[in-house]
Amino acid sequence: MKKIIIATKNKGKAKDFEALFNPLGYDVLTLHDVAEEMDIEETGITFEENALLKATALANHLQTIVIADDSGLEIDALDGRPGIYSARYAGEEKSDDANIDKVLEELENVEEPNRTARFVCAIAIASPTQKTITVRGTCEGVIAKERRGNNGFGYDPIFYVPSENKMMAELSADEKGAISHRGNAIKKLSANLAELLSDK
Ligand SMILES: O=P(O)(O)OP(=O)(O)OP(=O)(O)OC[C@H]1O[C@@H](n2cnc3c(O)ncnc32)[C@H](O)[C@@H]1O
Ligand SMILES: [Mg+2]
What we know:
This protein is of the alpha+beta class.
């Protein structure tokens, strides 16, 4: 199989990408496989900027084409927080569990229909020889009052997807990819994905 490199250390994210890319004929490699020592700082103020930072840093380091994803959860009742700070919302040690607890606490007195939110995913493709590109995908949902489901990662156990009548964490990786922010971003590229990833 062809290989595609994703500039991520998040194993849940990598699984999502495997579900999206394996059917297209690509094996997924991550920072853990190609440059474990790299720690790319996310200093941008938008998802797109951070995705570009991660993709460009690794593409330059490896001198090959690389994809990166910067993503997060925007909660309307919290004015869009945690947004680009989603990974570290409850602290630098990056705990999905603590992040969820913090969101549930902050929304304790917020009732439907005011618990609306969306996942956002910016995907960047960088290469030593081509112009960089970014695309954005989103997925609308509602923050539940408690966790349900064991699949996925991050905020998936509290993100209710109305169109599926399930939590994101109750969907298989394939089902998630069909409706997720990440899947929707990839769909925007699909017509010329092979060309974009060929590095010619
Ligand atoms: O930067 P990399 O190494 O890719 O890994 P990360 O986890 O730090 O990734 P981001 O900086 O893009 O932050 C994304 C955070 O947003 C949340 N998130 C993004 N996509 C998600 C998804 O599909 N399901 C649940 N939570 C998600 C989750 O908390 C992630 O840690
Ligand atoms: Mg990150």
